[in-house]
Specification:
The complex is a heterodimer. Chain A is 51% helix and 12% strand. By secondary structure, chain A is α/β, with parallel strands linked by helices. About 8% of the residues of chain A have low confidence. The longest helix of chain B is centred in the middle third of the chain and has 27 residues. By secondary structure, chain B is α/β, with parallel strands linked by helices. The chains are: A alpha/beta, B alpha/beta.
Chain lengths: 431, 525
């Protein structure tokens, strides 16, 4: 009877802590009667939702809380005053259905087991879209500053392209800047993407992303929130949703973050939840990368490509494949294959005889066909940029002795080839 | 006895010929004006009566009816005073009727019979000289300076009613001598005036006075050469306003027709104050508290607004996002069409408004986004600030120029290879010459910025590499159709500046860099 969770969250408005404590007590009490049941709330004894059982269950739950002296009177009163007829629940479900909103409880099979591991998992999740993404995909988080620069945009694009794989889904917060880019580029790569809202499930914030939210659902993605329709949004909700972003993901990538950025909150919660934290290094002069560089110095893994992230999880993918094969084929063969294949896999990575890896290394741009097609002026500017880091147009004009028009032409050529990027207004640096 | 005199009144920026019919008959003494006369015209009968008596003539004690035609046009202004006066004094004029029919009398009378300086005389003279059969026009003596360069019509300055009758009655030879004398007299006065004015000449801002900012200077040069609308975006104190002011002193020279157009408008607005024909393009800088009506024109007597005063020059909107939203939106149509229609019950007034818009704004409300100082704006505020400039207005701006703060080191950079002020000005002139030749046969197009969509293929020819380049840009940045044509127009101007016949790929490359800031600040992903 999942409806019970809906009642607790949407009508009685019990906090996570209140619900968890009462439910624990109640299930202990129930377990004495039905020792076989191991569920947190023991709701499964009533499979079908009907008004008599629902009421009985509610009363039992409240009575249990009342008898124990651990709960505040306000909490008990709150629950007592919100004892409702089952019709209210039905109509609430109806209006949620009209908005395309559904929900899962912590006891549901679809609730991601990885999220249960965290300190404070939400006992109900509201969602729009395809909930199976949570279970089936390997989830990585991608967060960053709302005031993203061109560099941040380019980085999120590059990394998502490199980890592009239909077994992976990217989760982010549907905010401005890096969050939006993550969702957009993810969909461009035909991957599923998940947005975790800090606001109520029917209230997309910022408004400018309403269209993006619809796109996500259209592309088979998912939007989740722990707040039901019509619930008011508080500023602290956005900080709290960060624990869900890191909670459902196996690793969190911080693309671009200022000092004190909200992305660093996600990073902290990821650490406390025992998730991997990856950070994209940036220029030490850029205040937009200060946060990223700081967490690297504290021990986050600096990444230069998507490969750097995937190498940590390769074993998971391998394991999954073999488990599937184990199910299908003869057990002994499969285990043998796993062993031999693993050797092959290691060899694949580094061949001692040739001293070469078969992996592509993104940092090596030598022999890249793009640099062949550029002219003398472009090469000269590239050299100047590698010597000086970043240069603005005035400096380039003075250093090269070219006219402004010519400098702009050269800069544009290099921008087309993605060899340089604009780091500040009228200031350029090598990519 | 009926006499007929021709005169004229201002209508929009043009003038309309008014026929004054006077009937002086026996009966009770009466003086009346019919023919939809406005208040100023009705009052003219008192001025005429006093002027005639004080000039030493006798006002006829008869029944006098004045009829103004066309009767359906409302006549305003004091231009008809002299005409009515001459009609009453017809008997004193010793020329035959044909002479009177070929003459036009314009001027406001003073009670002592002298003729006063009146605004808009230039426009009336220009418009009426196009009518058939008009040979000479009598205008106030003080207005002669603005009209003496007009050809094809005899412009005769007169000082008073008595003077006017004296000049009409002169023989042809004597008249010529008298005119010569007057012209010299007026011009010698002007020279004295000019030598006085030079000392008070406004201090001009030069590009070389502005340090660094090579990119922005290039933007301004291109905008001036092709008449492109330009927006300068940058934090406070980076020199946006100074650059815009420098554009004022680099505006290209005017042609004779253009200068007539400009002077005409200033004459009607009464802003000539006794100067000759204007040789400088206007530069109007309305404050951001301006109302819609004073910007585009309108009001009780459908007067001209700032955009008309900026015709063939620059309209500088400093801090455009601080203007009221409806004020900004009101310049949409004039920006596209180059004129504004003001509709009143009976008539539609069409004022020209071909101006180059120079707008500046900060990247955010506090101004310090992307600068060394801390920006205190919330993202919502920034969005709201930028959204104030609507899409249609942005669509009409060709060049977006981002201005960054200058480092101390840059301030001290030796700018040997920056172009000199003289070179910049000369390049602009040359580019305009090329455009004048190219568009000589095309109606409605004088500058690159005015090319219509249909004419783009004809005027913006690309060579092969340029076509490849624009294809790459189009696909890579998914340009809209409109952005595409904007890039081509700017590329056309760059090609003109560089002296390229067809547009080369480097012109396209450079043109696109002036659109980058648009994507950075205003693109809605």
């Amino acid at each position: 009877m999942e409806e019970f969770f809906l009642w607790a969250d949407s009508i009685a408005r019990l906090t996570n802590k209140e619900f968890r404590d009462i439910a624990k007590l109640y299930s202990e009490y129930n377990r004495c009667e039905n020792p076989n049941k191991n569920s947190i709330t023991n709701y499964t004894e009533y499979d079908e939702f009907n008004s008599i059982d629902f009421k009985k269950y509610l009363e039992g739950f409240i009575l249990c809380a009342e008898k124990s002296s651990r709960f505040k009177k306000a909490t008990i009163d709150k629950m007592k005053s919100s004892v409702v007829d089952s019709m209210v629940i039905v109509s609430l479900k109806e209006s949620m259905k009209n908005l395309g909103v559904d929900y899962i409880s912590i006891d549901s099979n679809n609730y991601p087991s990885i999220l249960k591991e965290i300190y404070d998992p939400p006992y109900v999740l509201y969602f729009r879209g395809d909930i199976s993404v949570l279970k089936e995909k390997f989830i990585l988080g991608m967060v960053g500053s709302r005031d993203a620069t061109e560099y941040g945009r380019a980085v999120s694009k590059k990394i998502i392209q490199e980890i592009s794989d239909d077994r992976i889904a990217i989760v982010s917060g549907l905010a401005r800047g890096i969050d939006s880019y993550s969702h957009i580029f993810c969909m461009n790569e035909n991957m599923k993407t998940i947005a975790v809202l800090g606001s109520a499930i029917d209230n997309i914030y910022p408004k400018i992303n309403v269209q993006l939210a619809n796109e996500i659902i259209k592309n088979g993605g998912l939007i989740i929130s722990e707040h039901n329709i019509g619930k008011n949004t508080m500023p602290y909700h956005f900080a709290l949703r960060n624990r869900i972003i890191s909670g459902i993901s196996n690793g969190v990538i911080v693309v671009e973050a200022k000092r004190n950025s909200g992305a660093l909150v996600t990073c902290e919660s990821a650490l406390s939840q025992n998730r991997n934290v990856y950070s994209v290094p940036g220029s030490i002069f850029s205040k937009f990368s200060q946060g990223c560089n700081e967490i690297i110095s504290k021990g986050a893994k600096p990444i230069q490509s998507g490969r750097d992230v995937l190498e940590d999880f390769d074993y998971i993918f391998r394991l999954k494949e073999y488990r599937e094969r184990l199910k299908k084929e003869d057990n002994i063969n499969a285990v043998e294959d796993m062993y031999t294949d693993k050797k092959y896999y290691n060899k694949n990575k580094f061949d001692k005889s040739t001293r070469k890896t078969t992996d592509t290394c993104v940092n090596i741009k030598l022999g890249d066909d793009r640099s062949d097609s550029i002219g003398i002026d472009e090469k000269r500017l590239m050299e100047l940029l590698s010597d000086n880091g970043e240069l603005n147009i005035d400096q380039i004009v003075v250093m090269t002795g070219m006219s402004v028009g010519k400098v702009l032409v050269v800069i544009n050529r290099l921008l087309f080839l993605d060899l340089i990027a604009e780091v500040d207004s009228n200031t350029y640096a090598k990519k | 006895m009926i006499s007929k005199i021709c005169s004229g009144v201002i209508f929009g920026v043009d003038a309309v010929m008014i026929d004054i019919e006077l009937d002086i008959s026996n009966g009770m003494p009466y003086f009346g004006i019919v023919g939809l006369a406005g208040t100023q015209v009705k009052e003219s009968k008192e001025r005429v009566r006093s002027a005639i008596s004080n000039s030493g003539y006798v006002f006829p004690m008869k029944r006098i009816i004045v009829n103004l035609s066309p009767a359906d046009l409302k006549k305003d202004g004091s231009y008809l005073d002299l005409g009515i006066c001459m009609g009453i004094l017809r008997e004193k004029i010793k020329k035959e009727n044909k002479y009177i029919e070929q003459s036009i009398f314009i001027g406001e009378l003073s009670l002592d019979g002298s003729i006063k300086y009146t605004r808009g005389i230039l426009s009336i003279v220009l418009s009426l000289s196009e009518y058939e059969g008009v040979k000479r026009i009598f205008i106030p003596y003080d207005n002669f300076l603005e009209c003496y360069e007009i050809e094809g019509i005899e412009v005769i300055p007169v000082k008073s009613v008595k003077d006017c009758i004296k000049i009409i009655n002169l023989e042809e030879v004597n008249l010529r001598e008298e005119m010569k004398k007057r012209k010299e007299e007026i011009l010698s006065n002007k020279k004295i005036k000019e030598s006085n004015e030079e000392e008070y000449d406004e201090i001009m801002v030069k590009f070389s006075d502005i340090k660094g900012n090579a990119f922005a200077k290039r933007c301004c040069q291109i905008a001036l050469a092709g008449g492109h609308n330009i927006m300068l975006i940058g934090p406070p104190g980076t020199g946006k306003t100074m650059l815009a002011k420098a554009m004022k002193s680099y505006q290209p020279r005017v042609t004779r027709e253009e200068s007539m157009d400009i002077t005409r408008i200033y004459s009607i607005a009464g802003m000539l104050d006794g100067t000759n024909i204007l040789k400088d393009r206007p530069f109007r800088q309305p404050h951001h508290t301006i109302t819609k009506i004073s910007l585009v024109g309108g009001g009780a007597n459908a007067s001209m607004g700032e955009i008309t005063l900026a015709n063939r020059g620059i309209l500088f909107m400093d801090e455009i996002a601080e203007f009221k939203r409806d004020v900004i939106e009101s310049i949409r149509q004039p920006l596209e069409d180059g004129y504004i229609n003001i509709t009143r019950i009976n008539h539609v007034y069409k004022y020209p408004a071909k101006f180059t818009l120079v707008a500046t704004m900060n990247p955010c409300p506090c101004g310090y986004l992307n600068s060394s100082k801390l920006c205190t704006c919330r993202p919502v505020e920034i969005e709201r600030y930028r959204n104030k400039i609507s899409g249609p207005i942005l669509d009409r701006i060709d060049i977006f120029c981002e201005i960054a703060e200058i480092d101390f080191d840059d301030l001290r950079l030796k700018e040997n290879n920056f172009k000199s002020d003289g070179d910049i000005a000369q390049e602009i002139e040359d580019a305009r010459d090329i455009q004048r030749k190219r568009y000589a046969k095309t109606d409605g197009v004088d500058l690159n910025c005015e090319i219509s969509r249909g004419e783009i293929d004809e005027f913006c020819r690309l060579n092969k590499e340029a076509e490849d380049t624009i294809r790459i840009i189009y696909n890579k940045y998914s340009l809209s159709n409109r952005s595409y044509s904007r890039v081509l127009k700017v590329a056309r101007t760059i090609a003109d500046l560089e002296g390229h016949e067809d547009i080369l790929d480097e012109d396209i490359m450079e043109a696109f860099s002036y659109r980058r800031a648009y994507y950075k600040y205003f693109s809605r992903v």
